[in-house]
Description:
The chain has helices spanning 21-24, 26-31, 54-73, 123-135, 143-165, 170-179, 185-188, 210-222, 253-261, 269-276, 346-355, 360-369, 378-392; strands at 9-14, 95-99, 104-108, 117-121, 281-287, 293-301, 323-328, 337-342, 370-371. By secondary structure, the chain is α+β, with helices and mostly antiparallel strands. The protein has two domains: 3-227, no CATH class; 253-392, Nonspecific Lipid-transfer Protein, Chain A (2-Layer Sandwich). Strands 7-6-5-8-9 form a five-stranded mixed sheet, sandwiched between helices. Helix 4 (123-135) packs antiparallel against helix 5 (143-165). The two termini are 31 Å apart. 33% of the residues are buried. The model has no long low-confidence stretch (mean pLDDT 89).
Amino acid sequence: MALNSIYDHFWEMFKDPHYDLTVQNPDFLIKQADNLRMPIESVSESIFKSFSDEYRNKGLAYYKAKEALTNKVYPKGFGIDAIWKGNRPEDSPLLTINRHFDSASVNRGVMGELTRTMWVLDYPHIERLYYALVAGYDVYGNLSHQLNARRYMDFLRIEGEANFVAYMPENKRLDILKSWYIGDDDIEDMTDEDRINTRPTQVLYKTDHPKSEFIEQVVNHHILKSTGIAFDNINYYKQGEQPPKMPTEFSTAKDIQDGARSLTAPGTGFMEHLVDHNLNMMHIRVINPDGESTVFTLNINRWHDNANSMFTESKQLDSSKDTIDFLSGMHGSYINVFGIVNYEDLPDFYDMIANFDGSDTYKAKIHKYFISRSDEKFWETFDWFQNYFNESEPLTAGLYDLNRYYRKPF
């Protein structure tokens, strides 16, 4: 239920504690205790109370009170300094969240393309996310408990997005918010008079692309350099930057990288075919000329017009806008399929991604490069990827869960 309420790919930042008024003014939280109540406080409510707006209204009242306090203390708004930069090299001031349809992963840094949405989290926001979805969520609770928790998650998502939008130019905020909620009448009908956040921003902008300009300021000039966090060199494009041409030969790691970088455009037939079969995350082993291997995770970012729909998610999808990220290394715990490609086959593999049309010729390429659960070398392949994972990520590696591996033999 939590996954149903988030977009497929977004970045998270954190409010610096020195600028977080809920930290600096603990009395404020005490006064807001009733508005901070969450649906996890009861798991035995009647099903008829499942669609009560009680908790959402309390959450909105809390947010308005927090905004009023912020307007009083910071009437000119926040600058980049209000974003936490980290204190130590091992800190994670930026996180990437990827949804893989029925699972998700969190990674340190800013991975993938420029995300459509971003969040800024303050301390009470983090606490409510944790208690609503982890500590206080009863997997065995009744339907009322689970539906109310899911509906409350909508508000938590919007709060994180609203915290980010407050850093955008005032004349851009409403358009940015509406671009995230296509088809949601409540937001599409909003006017500037309906906005809660009316503070200016102290961030100075030089272009008409404030979202990318803001995150580039944060990543390139604000957070601690010692964290090593930087945009990935395959999927991220600056405004106006164009993908490279597809290499004609693949003899170096850069050739592989440039080939992947050329295929990040939205809406290829390959992606449409994959998501129809719930293949959202693939681990690909490329065997290089020297016998060593390069491993990528192919991650599909499914487009949602909006993420407010609990029961009609399929109607919010648009496969023509889906994108693919080529992520270096292995990400996610519930792998959907393994793939193996020899370097000399890379032109053919990349052709499959760029031009897949559902024909038998291209379906044969799926069979050639991806490992079916019925393949006689399946466990040999699994062992290779598991060992690679253990060696490359010794602190975080665990046993891969195959419950979501593509079930239909091919």
